[in-house]
Amino acid sequence: EDALEASAAIHAAVQSELVQAEESVERATDELKSMQREAMSQLVARKQLQRELSVCAGTFGSEMVAQRSESDRLREERAGLRQSAVGLGQELQACVSECDELASENLRIRSEAAALQGESARLHQWHALREDPSLQEAAAICGELQAYLEAPAQAKEAASAVCDTRQRPSWSELAEQRVDLERQRLLQALDEQECEILRLQHEVQQLSRGAYEPGPEPPDDMDNAVRTAFVDLGFGAAPPLVRLSRDPCVPRFLFEALECEAQLAPLHAGAGTSSGSRVALRFRVLDQQLSEEAPDWPSPAKGAGTSGGGRSGGTDSDCMEGIDGAADVAA
After folding, report:
1. How sure is the predictor about 139, in pLDDT bands with cuts at 50, 70 and 90?
2. Which of 54, 149, 240, 319 has its CA 20 to 30 A from that of 176?
3. Do residues 258 and 320 make contact, with C-beta atoms less than 8 angstroms apart?
4. Angle at CA 97, nearest 5°, toward 93 and 100?
5. CB-based contact 116:189 (threshold 8 Å)
6. Which of 194, 32, 30 shows the shortest CA–CA distance to 106?
7. Is 274:268 a contact under the CB 8 Å cutoff?
8. Phi, psi of 87 (to 5 degrees)
């Protein structure tokens, strides 16, 4: 009985230990299953993250390729624009140098024209002095004396006879021929200078891409009146004017940097002439802010052929600076 009780106690202890072991095994199994489920969910999340990462990597790679191609294209365009800018800069430099050459040539031609005009004035003065009878007689006597001193004895007798008779047609003819030749030379030089100035103005108009419209061909009455007025005022045969419009009713000119309109108005009886065959040439400086109304021209001067010059800020009664207002010219 003691052995049975001991074995029963041992059996009960073993049975309790077995139950505890089974419970621990079940708990371990449950923990293992939960860990397996957690590992499975983590594996699924990792796979999802890997797929998303691969998609993002592909998108990033394609975007990088597109950006690289766009950068290459922009670099090529920048290089082309740089080359175009360099070419345009060279062309601009060439145009500027050509304009400088034309300006210097224009100044040289103007100085030559002024010199020719001075020479022409001196020639006219000399011609006027040559027509003086006393000077003609003195020059003839001097020429005869020089010929008498240089000629041999027979020629001296003939020269003395000529001096006695006072017949001097040869010297007058020679002097007149010399004056005619000098006048023709000066006129030819003036014509050449005028042609050169017209050529330079044409080249300047070509460089400015046709910004200025040339005047009518042949010149109209307004062009002739302007030219005559500038000659009368002492500004030379080629005034620094550019015809801006072909309209004969409202002719516009460009005087240096001033745009102006010209008008031919008949002078009054007390304006220095007794007939109505002379007119007054007036200029009005245009203002860009003025409205398109009829211009208010200044009234003709009384007692003189010109009116006071000057300008006071671009009003309707302004005249061109540097010109004595208006010049009366023959119609």
Report:
1. low
2. 149
3. yes
4. 140
5. yes
6. 194
7. no
8. -65, -45
